Each structure stands twice: as structure tokens, then as C-alpha cells.
Predict the structure.
Amino acid sequence: MIEGNMLETYGERHKHLNSSIEDKAKLISLEDKKGYNLYFHLKECVKICLATQRSCNLQDLENLSANLKFARMNTENDGKFRENPAVLSMAQIQKKLFAKDEEEDEPVIDENTEHPLPNLTEIFYQFEKAGIGLCNSEATQLYLAIKSLVNVHPVKIARFWGKIFGVMQNYYILETEFIEGEEIEEEDEEAANNDENNAELEDAEDEEGETKDVLPKSKWKSPPKVPREGNNVGVNKKVYFVCHEPGLQWMRLPAVTPEQIVAARSICTVFTGNLDAHVNCSPPFPGTEANYLRAQIARISSSTQISPEGFYHVGDGGEEEEEEMNDEEGGERQRYSKNEDYEALPIKELVNSNVENWVHHMSYILPQGRVVWWNPTQNADEELDEFNVDEDGENEQADKVAAQPERGPPILTKISTDVPIFGQPAWSTRLSSKLIPEHAVALVSSNLWIGAHTVAWGK
């Protein structure tokens, strides 16, 4: 009896095993066009249910099955990933950066002249050690895009200024200086607008004179408009180019005016990424987003471009040039050059909390909106005489009060003198690595303009 029961039990097990194998084969045979079968789908569902800590009921199993099928449909499309047209189009444009044209000639650079193209590979590597900067692929594409601009324009110095994020598009900003005498001609928008306004006023006065009686003229005159600084001077010393993505066209930003800088101090608004967009703010801004971006670049550069003390010195060291700079309007010294005799300070001294070893090497922007103060009364004698003559031809004597010139801190002023921000220091410093300080870099960050960083390394 015992042997018979054992044989019967073994036979039943063998029968059930064959049935299970047949059922499994049937489930495996039920597959879709992509090769996924029902057996492996149920197997994945059961594995996930057993792996979860909470109990899995029938409704959870149905939702899990639907999610797995939905994820599989989104990740694969007949064995291929779905293509994004915008990403594909951008990749085709950036592909041209890696193709060298055989007919393209490299600019000839003198041996004694520094190449205008910066070593962005090393710069981005040092910034990466400090925990900031761009990713490797983005940095490589940007490097090639800057090279394409330097090869086309007569650039003496090129420097990657930074990246500003916009709502729709971002801005990659390049700071340049042109070779003297090789500047690109730029239309004076301010003069053109003034000519148009004057012509409209003259036409309006002529029409009023023909149709209306002569009325007493108001003696009030609006204050004179502060003229913008010329190219290679003051806030317009540098020329800036922007692009939305590496590989797209570089666009030159217009020169900035004092009116735009003063207005930019009074507003706070986000960038859209469209240079031609209207700036929605109150009080209204005199210009488009391109002008607003240029004004903010001037303000940020003036406040955050710093260097270790002694790295730069005023002028080129010549006595004649120093005398010329002292004779400049307002007595401002704007020119500086690299000190060849500079001895690098230890990295630990550059990260002291008192920031005594760092200085500003960009000129201070006066409340007037210029670097060099402009006297509004210097050319106003004739206008004042006309203003003081009344209708009877009698001359009214008026006190001419000389305008007080605006002064700011001189160039190469220590950043330790910067005004604190709500009781907090204007600058923060740190080492990139406390574990390996021998090969660390010094990082100085602005607490006024968040995102503005300076990194120092080497000797």
C-alpha cells in the first residue's frame, strides 16, 4: 500500500509539472509585435509586487501592469527612441562646430602677442574643481563657438563672461576688446532718436504756428540729457556678444547709455531670452531687452570683476601715460595692465574672511550712469543766456551754481571696503577642497550678485 501511494503521488506530480510547462509555453507564445510575451510581463509584475514593502492588492496589480506597458511604449518605438525635432535640429547645427573647413584660414598672431582665444579647457577645469561652471559637453561646444567668432572678428581679447538664464532661452555672453582701429561701426541709436524727436517737435511747432495764436513760451527747460560714453571708454570699454546656444549666431549687444544704467538700478525683472522683447516694468525702461541685458552686464562687471592685489597695476608703467591719465576728465584712471613682477600669494591667504588681498579692477559706475563724470553746465552758457532773456529783451540775472562732480572709489580698491548687505559681508570665500589643500583653488563669491564667482589657482 505504501509503495502504491508513492507511485501514484509521483505520477500526479509529473502530470502537474507537464501541465505547468505547457501553460508556461503557452504564455510565452502569446507575444506582441515587439517580442514581449505575456509570461515575462506577469513575471515583472509579480517581482515588483513581492519587492514592495506594503501589500499589493488586485487594483495595485492592474495599475502596475498598465504602468509597465505605458513605460515600455514610451521608451521604445519599433526598437528606436523617439526623436525630438528641436533637439535633432540643434544637434545638426552644433555638428558643424566639429567640422573644420579646409579653406578656413587661422588668424595670424604675432609671437609676442597673446592669443585672443582663452584656454577655456583649463579655466572650466579649475571652475569645476570649485564646484561651479558648465558641463564638459557644453563647455566644449562653447569653446568651439568662441573660436569661430575670434577667427572672424578682429578681437584682441576674448573672455567668457558667463551664462544668464531666461524664461524661454538662455544667454551665453562673451566679453571682447577689439584691436585699435578695427572696431565694427555701430549706429548711434541715441543720436538717431534725438534727430527724429527734434524733427517731430519742429513739425508740431510749425503746425501750431499756422493754426493757433502765439502763446507765451514756458521758460522751463528739461535738464540736459547725459551723453553716453564713447567706444573703448568707461562702461562701453568692452564689447559684448551673446548667443542662445553654442553654434547659433553671435549677436552684438548695443552700447549702453547712462539713462539705461540709471533705469536698470530701479527695476527688477526676469529675462525672456528675446533680445527684441519689450521690458515690462515700472518705471518704464528706455529700450528693449538687449539694452537691459547690456546695462545689467555693465553693473555686474563693475561690481564683481576682481583680482588678487598686485596682479594688475594702473597703466603700462610709463610716466607719459600716467600723466595723460591724470589729465583725463574727472581724474579717473581706467587703464590697467598685468603686473609681470607679480608674486602669487598662498591660496590660504586668498580665502581669508577679511578679503584684504582682493581688489576691484573695473571702474566704478557713478550715480550719473557713467565712469567719467560729465559736467552738465560746461556747454550750457549759451542756453542759460537765452533762458535768462525775457520777451522784452531784458536780461535776468540768475545765479549759476556749479554742479558738484561725482566721485567714486578709484580703480584697484580693496573689496573689503564694499558695503555689507543687510549686515552680511559682501563677499564669501572658501577652498575648493579642505582634504587636499595643496592642490585646491580659491573661490570668492559675491553675495550681492548671486552667481558671480572668481577662482584663483597656480602661481
